[in-house]
Design goal:
Blueprint: H1 5-17, H2 22-25, E1 33-39, H3 41-44, H4 48-59, H5 64-73, E2 76-80, E3 83-89, H6 90-104, H7 109-132
Antiparallel strand pairs: 1-3, 2-3
Helix pairs in contact: 5-7, 6-7
């Protein structure tokens, strides 16, 4: 881990620059957590109106969509400037990236949440089955 500390420090500074609070940026010190940045130009090109629309879809009314995605994926999301930044474990990142891509491409919020809930249920069942096969005594 000590070899990776300079890289983690750079990631923490980048996360703060992308709109995360220092407290949330320090989550990057946890071993499996990484920072992923999505450039929204991939979805809208140069149109500022489309950019605002996509950001609004990702944030949701009063931050509800962003909060729902954070809770369902156990990640932190920051929409800042022309990017969406995510801090989370590597195994959770794919799910939230897919959700943000779906919302940016016009999918309904309900269907995105349903997919995230299904993934979460599947992970819980996998964890339970792992424990069922263990001899405790």
């Amino acid at each position: 881990m000590s070899d990776a500390l300079p890289f983690k420090a750079m990631e923490i500074v980048t996360a703060i620059g992308r709109g995360f609070s220092p407290k949330k940026a320090l989550m990057l010190l946890e071993e499996d957590n990484v920072l992923h940045i999505i450039d929204l130009h991939e979805f809208v090109g140069k149109s500022t109106d489309q950019m605002e629309r996509i950001k609004g879809r990702i944030i949701g009314e009063n931050g509800k969509a962003r909060t729902n995605m954070e809770n369902l994926t156990n990640t932190s999301i920051s929409v800042y400037g022309k990017t969406v930044s995510i801090i989370g474990s590597t195994n959770k990142l794919k799910n939230v990236i897919d959700a943000i891509s779906s919302l940016s491409s016009g999918s309904m919020h309900g269907s995105v949440y349903s997919k995230l809930e299904a993934v979460r249920r599947r992970e819980k069942l996998d964890k339970l089955q792992l424990w069922e096969n263990q001899d405790v005594f």
